[in-house]
């Protein structure tokens, strides 16, 4: 069984980490089906299990909470010892956080409605079409920065249904997460028409988090890679 305690022995006295994530299955998700979770016992997923394993190996006192992306991201940007996962590492974000990882990789995928005949050879082929996305998401920001039209929601939950109903032309999501969200909305037959930009996902910590904490966390990552736990968690989720 790949189960990890959220309790550990603090090694930095009063230092405690406050770590946020969002509902983004299979990487991070509520294990009880709720929109929010107040502690790590209610949070599951590929990245979550790896983060919990890292925290346990590093013996770091912590709290894990599940919120919407904007809330967690802003806390990680603005409060010492706060972080968020799984966060896409980009050049523009590199200087905004201290990084632990990579925890997993993420293949950006464009989905079209069921029964589509759409053929896409490159991203430019979709210019002028309306995408479904969500606020604060790196994929949504990537499209907007390049002049693509994106209809943004507070989360990704409803976007598969919006695509099925024809409210948008396309939906940008992640290779594994897209089908999970669609199944939760009882949406079947969405067609992956183009994939691009395979990126790494990390735990992003506030810049005021002490360097020795970040070092200890990355050492924890190396421990679970060496003992096989990192790979075992990936295998559990089909990687």
From TrEMBL:
InterPro entries: Solute-binding_3/MltF_N. Residues 22-238 form the Solute-binding protein family 3/N-terminal domain. Coiled coil: none annotated. PANTHER family: PERIPLASMIC SUBSTRATE BINDING PROTEIN FAMILY 3, SOLUTE-BINDING PROTEIN FAMILY 3_N-TERMINAL DOMAIN-CONTAINING PROTEIN. This is Amino acid ABC transporter substrate-binding protein. It comes from Marinobacter fuscus. The lineage of its organism: Bacteria, Pseudomonadati, Pseudomonadota, Gammaproteobacteria, Pseudomonadales.
